[in-house]
Design brief:
Distance between the termini: 15 Å
Structural class: mainly alpha
CATH architecture of the largest domain: Up-down Bundle
Shape: globular
Helix content: over 70%
Number of helices: 24
Strand content: under 5%
Number of domains: 4
Family: Belongs to the major facilitator superfamily. EmrB family.
Keywords: Cell membrane, Membrane, Transmembrane, Transmembrane helix, Transport
Main location: membrane
Number of strands: 0
Low-confidence stretches: 1-6, 508-520
Protein name: Multidrug export protein EmrB
Subcellular location: Cell membrane
CATH class of the largest domain: Mainly Alpha
Length: 520
């Protein structure tokens, strides 16, 4: 630690260098986050072209997610041994190469191997982007640096499915990977030009092989369980049960080992800090709810309301409007106020949006779909910036890469957990509501009997009338299931506000600013 702290501070960037450096880091983050969702809507095209089933094709998503989840918490450990600028550069270059390999893939195994490499090298990019930005801005403007970072992180998950669907429909699926090449090349050149003389001190330390092995084991098992749980009917499957046991047992050993190891691969002692713990948990659960709903809403629109993939993506697009416009304002306001106030307002806006969505009907119009999404952008503008500021509060510069990596790891895992929980819960609530509606299908029910008679008068036979009722009941059950999840999400966001106020950040902006000053 002494060696890392003895580094001569780098002065903040100024003028054109600051602008170019911010753009370079933002491009790398956008490219990275975009790839977590751009392939999702292209699985049918990829599977058909490579001659495999859709179930096999979903491993394109799983392989990236597993490798990425494992590498993110290793950021701090790798930074000490490689240097933050060299590691960031290596991540960008290898990401571009692996994207090119994905596009060229002639077979599924080759594509999966390329996606594993892509996910692994993508891991350190997001945490290091925070570190480089904080170190590039003056202390007073650190919240503005976080606002620049937040905008790319917010827009990319929404843009991914839209861009992926359009490319698959109008060009060909390899181009969802080829688009990374020019973006990555620009980001790499700009990053090296601006940051090459601003690297951190390299610290040689023994490799924690046991910790690394346990990390790979429990994260890999958990991620595969989350991705495949719904397809395999969760714990009725022996495979899922085994994966769950392996994940729990190896996690327990991992925690014990890392807390006692002299050179841990993941610095779990960060959770002893109140601000880090409360900020990370609030950010991660909130992100899990956001990401779960981000998957649920388009899925419901496509399967039950009759929207195409592109139309469903466009419904989600307005979330980026207020997020982009207001994020810089949040960055300016944050130094003069308590970040907990901004985070609280953000969570209340999220709760309002989900409550509005919980009142949807099967006849929902475009205005009703767009309005909560538009308002949600206001919440997004105050979501990442104050919570990241709280999380990094009071940390010395040499611990920021490890803290950022661990916080982002928990957030990404919660995003995956949220997606799995929401899809499964929707299935269960839909089945329950369908059973309740089906109980009304009795001739002793005057409303049902009258409906069947009206269908008969309209020319339907009795079997056709019953079939039409079942179709309507299925659509209504899916609607009620979605409404339940939206309502619960609103309640959880309100409850999370208490967690925000468990943190005790210093003067607003001082936290992020202190982190920036220490990171120089």
């Amino acid at each position: 630690m002494a060696q890392a702290q003895a580094q001569v501070p780098h002065p903040p960037l100024e003028g054109a260098q600051l602008v170019i450096g911010t753009i370079a880091v933002s491009l790398a983050v956008f490219m990275n986050v975009l790839d977590t969702s751009i392939a999702n809507v292209s699985i049918p095209s990829i599977s058909g072209d490579l001659g495999v089933s859709s179930d096999q094709g979903t491993w394109v998503i799983t392989s990236f997610a597993v490798a990425n989840a494992i590498s993110v918490p290793l950021t701090g450990w790798l930074t000490e041994r490689v240097g933050q600028v060299r590691l960031f550069m290596a991540s960008i270059i290898l990401f571009v190469i692996s994207s090119w390999m994905c596009g060229l893939a002639p077979t599924l195994p080759f594509l999966l191997a390329s996606r594993v490499l892509q996910g692994a090298v993508a891991g350190p990019m997001i945490p290091l982007s925070q570190t480089l930005l904080l170190a590039s801005y003056p202390r007073a403007k650190a919240p503005m640096a976080l606002s620049m970072w937040a905008m790319t992180t917010l827009i990319a998950p929404v843009a991914g499915p839209i861009l992926g669907g359009w490319i698959s429909d109008n060009i060909s699926w390899p181009w969802i990977f080829y688009v990374n090449i020019p973006v990555g090349a620009i980001a790499a050149v700009a990053t090296w030009t601006i940051f090459r003389n601003r690297d951190s001190v390299i610290k040689k330390a023994p490799i924690d092989g046991v910790g690394l092995g346990l990390l790979i084991l429990w994260v890999g098992s958990l991620q595969v369980m989350l991705d495949k749980g719904k397809d395999l009917d969760w714990f009725s499957s022996t495979t899922i049960v085994v994966l769950a046991l392996v994940a729990v047992i190896s996690l327990a050993f991992f925690i014990v080992w890392e807390l006692t190891a002299e050179h841990p691969v993941v610095d779990l002692s960060l959770f002893s800090r109140r601000n880090f713990t409360s900020g990370t948990i609030a950010l991660s659960i909130g992100y899990g709810l956001y990401f779960g709903n981000l998957v649920l809403l388009p899925l419901w629109l496509q399967t039950d309301i009759g929207y195409t993939a592109t139309e469903a993506g466009l419904v989600m697009a307005p979330v980026g409007l207020f997020a982009v416009l207001l994020s810089p304002i949040t960055g300016k306001v944050l130094p003069r106020t308590d970040p907990r106030y901004i985070a609280t307002l953000s969570f209340l806006v999220f709760a309002l949006c989900f409550w509005m969505r919980s009142r949807y009907t099967t006849g929902v119009d475009t205005y009703s779909l767009l309005m909560p999404t538009l308002i949600q952008g206001i919440g997004m503008a105050g979501f990442f910036i104050p919570l990241v500021s709280i999380t990094l509060s009071g940390l010395p510069g040499n611990r920021i890469p490890a803290a950022s990596g661990l916080s982002n790891f928990v957030r990404i895992m919660c995003g995956g957990i949220g997606t799995s929980i929401f899809q499964t819960a929707w299935d269960h609530r839909t089945i329950m509501h369908h059973a309740q509606l089906a109980e009304q299908a009795s001739m002793y029910n005057p409303v049902f009997d009258q409906s069947i008679r009206q269908m008969g008068a309209a020319g339907y036979s009795q079997p056709q009338a019953y079939g039409l009722f079942n179709t309507m009941a299925t659509q209504q059950a899916a609607q009620l299931g979605v409404n339940d999840l939206f309502f619960v999400s609103a309640g959880i966001f309100v409850a999370l506000i208490a967690l925000i106020w468990m943190a005790k950040p210093e003067r607003a902006g001082g936290d992020a600013g202190a982190a920036a000053a220490a990171a120089h």
